[in-house]
Specification:
Number of helices: 16
Largest sheet: 2 strands, antiparallel
Distance between the termini: 31 Å
CATH class: Mainly Alpha
Structural class: mainly alpha
Number of domains: 1
Radius of gyration: 22 Å
Strand order of the largest sheet: 1-4
CATH architecture: Orthogonal Bundle
CATH topology: Peroxidase, domain 1
Shape: globular
Strand content: 5-15%
Helix content: 25-40%
């Protein structure tokens, strides 16, 4: 495993800032990357080396410390400080995650039995109410065949877009819940289709906001529950205590979210300004393994990005490095550009694909750790008082490490129709304080309905197709999925959108 990891990182320029040699500064790295390019059989070798030099990815030579290359620089965010310098236990755990090359410390598997709801014991335990929220979310995210469904993948993308609207020079934005609280945010072209995820989460927030939860926490918590609900998904460190977006904060800036047509270099720079390194970005892109597209190419709407969208596997990486698009699937141009880059990002794609389709392959283990590492950082962007957060990872579902259920383009079970009621659409200036809004119908069209005509728009039918079972289901090799009492009557099934 160690040899495999070093092989991955040796091809990643950002992870190797300066290696020893007798050549002039920078030239030793140039020789290394020439060799990598030659071995890969690629042309335009000198152009690739110059690309690396111009982007300051080739550093002056320096002697590496014993035992390997120096660790990549860790950019501090919020009030984080180096571990062991007097910070809180949460601080040290997060810094341990950030400094772990493989992200193995960014997942935990502690189990938890909450006190009874609506008791003093539960009120005193920050994580208690989140365990009950999890109980409502898991059946909402679980397909009747044990895979994760379209609502789950919508929620994954929702968490990304809420946290990703931030860069280092901003004083607000990031993981603040604005995508849930401000109905205008989902109308941005970059957020097309996310109104369906918002409609699914709004009833959950309305049900629990009286317990003092924040929408900002709910968005990121729901992302982590959705990922763990997908078979093979990681159990990522999960923190509670973020403040909510307020109307006086104003709207998020434009241009903070990725463009599916953009060059890999531009996306790397975009995320570098969010303090996310290229290797972490490659891991985060892998969430497309459970995604579908609706708006990028409407002639191929609802196609998934790999052939097993209900399973959190590495088929996405395997298909891209092989330049393979299985029948019924779709690849975004930006994903292909990442997988084709010789310096580092292609090597990372190859590493993630290693061992597919074995559930516990080296690539699957590598990806889960690095995805968790990247998402812990993403989920904390814009949060100022990180050290005072509470670790509630223990309430997440038990992860499904092996999966013997079906792996197909579409669910292998029948759907159930639910009548969707009219529910007021409220925005808030904090935990449960209504500051305005407008009425709307919680509705998500079925896959057959095709993409919405206008990003952020809603449609008017009174019933939808949902694959959430009417009774408790059991995920193969996983925990029992029990329906939350009465909550599903308010839920919108999200059956087609882009991740």
């Amino acid at each position: 495993m160690k040899a495999f990891t070093l092989s991955l990182l040796a091809g990643t320029a950002l992870a190797y800032p300066g290696m020893s040699g007798n050549a002039p500064p920078g030239e030793h790295h140039a020789g290394i990357f020439k060799a990598i390019i030659e071995r890969a059989g690629e042309r335009h070798m000198e152009a690739e080396v110059e690309w690396l030099k111009k982007r300051s990815l080739l550093y002056p030579r320096q002697a590496p410390p014993p035992g390997g290359p120096p660790p990549a620089k860790v950019v501090l965010i919020g009030d984080l400080q180096e571990a062991g310098t007097g910070g809180t236990a949460v601080n040290d755990a997060i810094m341990g995650c950030f400094r772990n090359q493989n992200g193995t410390t960014c997942e935990t598997f502690e189990e938890y039995t909450p006190p009874k709801k609506d008791t003093q014991s539960c009120e005193k335990d920050t994580c208690c109410i989140w365990s009950y929220i999890k109980d409502d979310l898991v059946p909402l995210f679980t397909e009747c065949d044990g895979t994760c469904n379209d609502i789950a993948r919508a929620t994954v993308r929702f968490g990304f877009h809420d946290a990703g609207a931030w860069h280092q020079n901003l004083t607000h934005g990031g993981a603040d819940g604005s995508l849930l609280l401000d109905p205008e945010e989902v109308k941005r072209p970059a957020n097309a289709g996310l109104d369906r995820a918002r409609n699914a989460l709004l009833p959950v927030w309305k049900k629990y906001k009286g317990y003092g939860i924040s929408a900002a926490d709910l968005v990121q918590f729901a992302h982590n529950v959705a990922v763990t609900t997908c078979p093979l998904g990681p159990r990522t460190l999960t923190y509670i205590g973020r403040p909510d977006w307020k109307p006086e904060d104003g709207p998020n800036q434009d241009g903070l979210l990725p463009d599916a047509n953009d060059l890999a270099d531009n996306l790397i720079n975009l995320f570098a300004n969010k303090t996310i390194q290229s290797i972490d970005l490659v891991a985060l892109i892998g969430a497309h393994t459970a995604g579908k597209q609706r708006f990028f190419d409407t002639t191929q709407a609802n196609k998934p990005f790999d052939s097993t969208p209900g399973v959190w596997d590495v088929a996405f990486y395997s298909d891209l490095v092989a330049d393979r698009t299985p029948e019924g699937t779709f690849h975004l141009p930006s994903d292909g550009k990442f997988s084709a880059r010789v310096n580092g990002t292609r090597n990372a794609f190859l590493a993630m694909a290693n061992g597919f389709p074995t559930d516990n392959s080296a690539g699957q283990i590598q990806w889960n750790g690095l995805y968790s590492k990247g998402y812990v950082r993403l989920s904390l962007l814009g949060v100022q008082k990180i050290q005072s957060l509470t670790d509630c990872t223990k309430v997440l579902p038990v992860p499904v490490k092996t999966f013997s259920g079906p792996r197909a383009l579409a669910p292998t079970c029948k759907s159930i129709d639910y009548v969707v009621p009219d529910v007021p659409d409220e925005t808030t200036g904090g935990n449960g304080t209504v500051s305005g809004g407008k009425n709307g119908t919680i509705f998500a069209p079925s896959a057959a309905a095709g993409p919405s005509k206008t990003p952020g728009s809603t449609e008017s039918p009174t019933s939808i197709s949902s694959t959430v079972p009417a009774q408790a289901t059991t995920n193969a090799a996983g925990p029992s999925r029990v329906l939350g009492g009465g909550l599903l009557s308010l839920m919108a099934a999200v059956l087609a959108f882009a991740l």
